[in-house]
């Protein structure tokens, strides 16, 4: 939808024009999966599609939430902003309000809020993080709280922990808040130090393949992986104290992995994290050096590790990646996001994009019975006010 159409939808919902329009993007992670909550590095970029938020101060004592994807308006008094509701989409922006209040911000006046997003739901491209960050960015602007973008990302992460009950890392919210056009973010998730790395892919495009196998982090499998990694840290710490798995190099891990013999699952999870951190570092160096083929090799190895050691892929994601690997002109392909459905991300030579979509799409549908979608990704900026 165009901005003017969104403004008209706001008028239809609330009877008056909005005061402001905000936007925050979804993200795709090029490499570095399930490393963020393990203190490792990641390499995401913000996308050109995301979530829009329109609002006005209403002069009252209630906050009204309306999504163009939902028929009803949810209305809460300003003293009801710190309690989660019963598993509804409103918990994402509501959780952000709660985090501002926890930080001592007084919300004395209500808002009318309208949400619309064009991040495909369930695709694993961070529609939830985009919603959290756009809410945080808008409140920061409206209330004059002066939080920087990193704090806004942390507010979004806490909202997801406490109101959506997903123990996510910081990557998704950080990319949505701090993204920059034509750059990926090399982020150390332990220290939150980051570098914006130019993505120069001459003759190569980033192609996102949506399996349409719903990606549901709140299913419990994601939180289970978090717990398994914590168990690995506990076992390793008996022989070498560590805070996070990502502290270990591959050589260091080999020296202590005997501590995980009693728990083969924790062993596999830890092995993925340690090797994925190294792959991410190698991939970023390759991109900076213009070694795109090496970057692609790291992507492929990442998917294999996520399939075999972390076990978060499944039939749909594996089929999509494995069919992509067969196409001449595909430099690399892997699942992206939390897994359990969602999308793959591929680096594809421009002349191979049409044949990729045709052949991979047909093979995927033949094997799964599902018709996929494909998007050529444009790397965009982070959260902003647009009107």
UniProtKB/TrEMBL annotation:
Matching Pfam families: GalKase_gal_bdg, GHMP_kinases_C, GHMP_kinases_N
Molecular functions (GO terms): ATP binding; galactokinase activity; magnesium ion binding
Pathway in which this enzyme or protein is active: Carbohydrate metabolism; galactose metabolism
Highest taxon of the lineage: Bacteria
Localization terms from the record: Cytoplasm
Top EC category: transferase
Binding of ATP, residues: 67, 122-128
Key words of the record: ATP-binding, Carbohydrate metabolism, Cytoplasm, Galactose metabolism, Kinase, Magnesium, Metal-binding, Nucleotide-binding, Transferase
Transmembrane segments: none
GO cellular component terms attached to this protein's record: cytosol
Location of the GHMP kinase N-terminal domain: 91-179
The protein's Enzyme Commission number: 2.7.1.6
Active site: residue positions: 172 (proton acceptor)
All copies of domain GHMP kinase C-terminal, residue ranges: 283-365
Residues reported to bind substrate: 33-36, 222
Domain Galactokinase N-terminal: 8-57
Catalytic activity: alpha-D-galactose + ATP = alpha-D-galactose 1-phosphate + ADP + H(+)
Function: Catalyzes the transfer of the gamma-phosphate of ATP to D-galactose to form alpha-D-galactose-1-phosphate (Gal-1-P).
Family according to the record: Belongs to the GHMP kinase family. GalK subfamily.
NCBIfam families: gal_kin, PRK05322.1
HAMAP family, alphabetized: Galactokinase (MF_00246)
Protein name per UniProt: Galactokinase
Source species taxonomy: Bacteria, Pseudomonadati, Bacteroidota, Bacteroidia, Bacteroidales
């Amino acid at each position: 939808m165009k901005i003017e159409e969104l403004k008209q939808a706001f008028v239809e919902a609330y009877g008056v024009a909005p005061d402001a329009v905000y936007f925050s993007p979804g993200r795709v992670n090029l490499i570095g999966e399930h490393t963020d909550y393990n203190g490792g590095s990641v390499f995401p970029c913000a996308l050109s599609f995301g979530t829009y938020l329109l609002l006005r101060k209403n002069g009252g004592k209630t906050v009204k939430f309306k999504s163009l994807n939902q028929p009803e308006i949810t209305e809460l008094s300003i003293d009801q902003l710190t309690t989660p509701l019963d598993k509804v989409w409103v918990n994402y922006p509501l959780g952000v309000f709660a985090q501002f209040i926890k930080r001592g911000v007084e919300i004395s006046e209500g808002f009318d809020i309208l949400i619309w997003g064009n991040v495909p739901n369930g695709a694993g491209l961070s529609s939830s993080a985009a919603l959290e960050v756009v809410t945080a960015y808008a409140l920061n602007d409206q209330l004059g709280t002066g939080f920087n973008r990193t704090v806004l990302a942390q507010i979004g992460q806490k909202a997801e922990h406490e109101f959506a009950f997903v123990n996510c890392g910081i990557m998704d919210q950080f990319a949505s808040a701090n993204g920059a056009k034509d750059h990926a973010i090399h982020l150390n998730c332990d220290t939150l130090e980051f570098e914006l790395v130019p993505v120069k892919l001459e003759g190569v495009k980033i192609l996102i393949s949506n399996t349409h196998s719903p990606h549901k982090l709140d299913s419990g499998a994601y939180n289970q992986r978090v717990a398994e990694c914590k168990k690995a840290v506990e076992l390793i710490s008996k022989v070498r104290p560590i805070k996070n798995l990502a502290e270990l190099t591959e050589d260091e891990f080999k020296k202590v992995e005997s501590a995980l013999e009693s728990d083969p699952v924790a062993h596999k999870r830890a092995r993925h994290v340690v090797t994925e951190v190294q792959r991410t570092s190698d991939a970023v160096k390759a991109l900076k050096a213009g070694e795109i083929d090496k970057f692609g090799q790291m992507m492929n190895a990442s998917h294999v590790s996520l399939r075999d050691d972390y076990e978060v892929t499944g039939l749909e994601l594996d089929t999509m990646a494995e069919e992509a690997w067969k196409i001449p002109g595909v430099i690399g392909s892997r699942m992206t996001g939390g897994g359990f459905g969602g999308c793959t991300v591929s680096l594809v030579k421009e002349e191979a994009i049409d044949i990729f979509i045709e052949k991979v799409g047909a093979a995927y549908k033949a094997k799964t019975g599902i018709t996929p979608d494909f998007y050529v990704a444009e790397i965009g900026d982070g959260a902003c006010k647009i009107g």
